[in-house]
Amino acid sequence: MSDGCPLCATVQQGGPPGGWVGATDEWAVMGHPLQVPGWLCLMPLRHTESLADLSHPEATQLGPVSRHLAKALMESTGADRVYSYSLGHTVRHFHLLIGVPGATPETQGPRLLTRILQRDQTVVDQQASAALLGTVGRWLDAHPIAT
Ligand SMILES: [Zn+2]
């Protein structure tokens, strides 16, 4: 726990409103903080500021867990790929954002990432995000994360 860290606060509260989409003993998954449809936020339960600071168990689980989430997103949405990124510029608790491209050229590739990073409200859709989180959550219930 790190004072002032919003992700540690979420962990301390037992998860975001509606609960975790998935979790292991080291990692938890919730929707993208901006509620971008088809995007997830994977974070270690312990406060750690960078990829270099992960414990051995956290690092060992990161590959299988992130691969499993990519598969969950692809099978839940029909997307042919997923994007992922981690900056840690604003929130200094390591987190990996994983999501699917949008349906139009403006919501694909670098254009989508730029819009997300600029907090462009046109990529935010609370209802669509919640619906997709439900779909991904049901997929994960049927296909639990194995570490
Ligand atoms: Zn933290």
Task: Give an overview in words.
The structure is a single chain. Helices cover 37% and strands 14% of the residues. By secondary structure, the chain is an alpha+beta fold. It has one domain (6-91, 98-142): 2-Layer Sandwich (HIT family, subunit A). It has a five-stranded antiparallel β-sheet. Strand 2 and strand 3 form a beta hairpin. Helix 2 packs across helix 4. The chain is globular.
What ranges have pLDDT less than 50 throughout 5 or more consecutive residues? none
Which CATH architecture would you pick?
Answer: 2-Layer Sandwich
Main beta sheet: strand number and arrangement?
Answer: 5 strands, antiparallel
Across the major sheet, the strand order is 1-2-3-5-4
CATH topology: HIT family, subunit A
Task: Give the CATH H-level superfamily.
Answer: HIT-like
Give the N-terminus to C-terminus distance in angstroms: 24 Å
Radius of gyration (CA) equals 14 Å
Tally of alpha and pi helices: 4
What small molecules accompany the polymer chains?
Answer: zinc ion
Oligomer, anyone? Answer: single chain
The structural class is alpha+beta
Return the domain count.
Answer: 1
| Helical content band | 25-40%
Strand proportion: 5-15%
Order of helices and strands: HEEEHEEHH
What value does the average pLDDT take? 93
By DSSP, the count of extended strands is 5
Q: Briefly, what CATH class?
A: Alpha Beta
User: Tell me, what's the shape?
Assistant: globular
